[in-house]
Write a structure and sequence with these properties.
There is one protein chain. With 222 residues, the chain is an all-alpha fold. The chain folds into 2 domains: 133 residues, RNA polymerase sigma factor, region 2, helix turn helix motif (Rna Polymerase Sigma Factor, Chain: A, Orthogonal Bundle); 88 residues, Arc Repressor Mutant, subunit A. Helix content is 59%, strand content 0%. Helix 3 runs parallel beside helix 5 and helix 4 packs across helix 5. The longest helix is centred in the C-terminal third of the chain and has 23 residues.
Length: 222
């Protein structure tokens, strides 16, 4: 079993910065018990980094955090409609991924495995708050950037808000499929690995999500 890295304490404080706690070691004095001190190149393939972590270099997991946390946060935010809840879900998912890394059967497809864990955490959050029953008016619109107050920016911000609110009102499975395909840019093969669903099922979910979004947006803008 791989050694316990210092940042696993984040399980009790999930919204702290993973990037700060996940930096590779710079000197031998900071090495965790049983760990190795060699810093793994950030450009190393996932399979190599996973092997390092499982071999005892817990700090190497920080490379995977830097590599995948931004996308996971983007995905979770669109699934949950709340940045704080998304940060919690991603932090919980990364802790779980670290603890169960040996269960990742194909480290070459680590990205899909991480999205699957995060998707499960998001569904748990959604189930607890019954968010599938919310209406468009219940979903907070994202704040506009403060860099400009031109009409063009305001108009674009309103359009983005409508899309975000319509997306948040979709059932979780359709929302997940749509975000993985059109926001995260996954292939259907990657989506199948991330969700456990069959490719034809995922294609149908994406199609129905797109139709539901268009219908919701048309209703809102009337």
């Amino acid at each position: 079993m791989h050694s316990r890295a210092p940042w696993t304490a984040l399980v009790s404080a999930p919204r702290r910065s993973w990037l700060l706690r996940g930096k590779p070691l710079e000197n031998r004095d900071e090495a965790p018990p049983g760990g190795v001190t060699e810093v793994v190149n950030d450009g190393a393939p996932d399979i190599e980094v996973v092997a390092r972590v499982l071999g005892g270099d817990g700090e190497a997991f920080g490379i995977l955090i830097r590599r995948y946390e931004p996308g996971l946060l983007r995905f979770a935010t669109r699934m949950l409609g709340n940045p704080d809840a998304a940060a919690d879900a991603v932090a919980e998912s990364l802790v779980r991924a670290y603890r169960h890394l040996a269960q990742c059967r194909d480290p070459g497809r680590l990205r899909s495995w991480l999205y699957r864990i995060t998707g499960n955490r998001c569904r748990s959050h959604l189930a607890r708050r019954h968010s599938n029953d919310i209406s468009l008016s219940d979903v907070p619109a994202p704040a506009l950037a403060d860099s400009s107050d031109t009409w063009a920016v305001l108009e674009r911000g309103e359009q983005v808000a409508l899309v975000e609110r319509a997306l948040a009102a979709l059932p979780a499975e359709k929302r997940e499929a749509f975000v993985l395909k059109h926001v995260e840019g996954m292939s259907y093969e990657e989506m199948a690995a991330a969700t456990g669903a069959r490719i034809p099922t995922l294609k149908m979910r994406v199609h129905r999500a797109r139709e539901a979004l268009l219908a919701a947006l048309e209703e809102v803008v009337r």
